[in-house]
Amino acid sequence: MKLTASPLCLSLTLTALLLPLSSRLHAGVDSNTPPSAIVAAAGQEAPKPAPLPLHQIEGSGGLVTTLSAYIVNPQRQGQVVGLPAAGFAFVDMGHGKNIEATTLTESPISRLEIGYGWDHMCLGNLAPAIRSAGVSTYTQNEVNLQNANLRFQLVKENDFNQKWLPALTLGVHYKYNGGISEVNQQLGGALNAAGITHNSGVDVTLYASKTITQLPIPIMINVGGRATEAVWDGFGGFTDHYNFVFEGNVIIFPTSHLALGAEFKQQPKDYQAIGNLVQMESNWWTLDAAYVITKNLTVAVSYGHFGNVLNSSANGTWGLTTKWEF
Fold first, then answer.
1. Is 298 exposed, middle or buried (0-12, 13-18, 19+ CB in 10 A)?
2. How many Å apart are CA 175 and CA 230, to the nearest integer?
3. How much is the pTM?
4. What top-level class would CATH report for the domain 13-325?
5. Which has the least CB within 10 A, 16, 116, 200, 293?
6. Domain residue extents for the chain
7. pLDDT per residue as tens digits for the range 6-23
């Protein structure tokens, strides 16, 4: 079952942006000092930056559906090991469809992020539509997507004393969809016939991030690519072929606690539509606003446009996300 663009994305893209800004905010560092340059005095633990980036719904650092090359709550100087972070997101897509994401990350060292995301999606009006189309025995009304993520920061921002150099992070993401096989079975194998043949897959991502502080308002730019077999990020299952898609986001920081951003996520279309029940997915875009409440807590809201989500559209959707860093 192909799930077109998801409003989850919209959830809170902005948060990720705040990472570099928080460094200046909480560490009292000059506004031109990048997050990677903050160092503690000998024998002391480095000050904690703001709780950013956020968790995107898959359980990695970023903006809800797109990522950032910055690592979530990385190990700081003076720490034996980095501390974990936990998050939750809710996105209302309308027509009885919604997504709930529970996420957890641990960054034991400054360059390594280990993440997990459990995403539950209620399929809303899909089951009644399928029964109305003639499959009277159809009952499956939810799917659960599990994401296991490993990301390594190949290059830190401003490494080698090169102030133009962005952070560069490589990620591997294993995805398993519990429920999509049952959906396919109850549809008499229709998903397989449309090219959606697996309930698991592995994504590979590569992201570059740079925070520009020489302007009147700091701007963060996150640009990346993804190799994926997933349909609608895996909520709709997985195909037999990899597609290479573009993702990215831009965030501005009007104040030290507020971030405003926008993200774009390209979606592959490596399957066939099944009438009006599983329509072709669209690219996603969202507008987001995040607020750093304390050094541990960030909350964000998002507005998103995700086109077709199975048998209905998900445009003009709203989401809420929160993340706590220990």
1. buried
2. 9
3. 0.85
4. mainly beta
5. 293
6. 13-325
7. 433 333 333 333 334 434
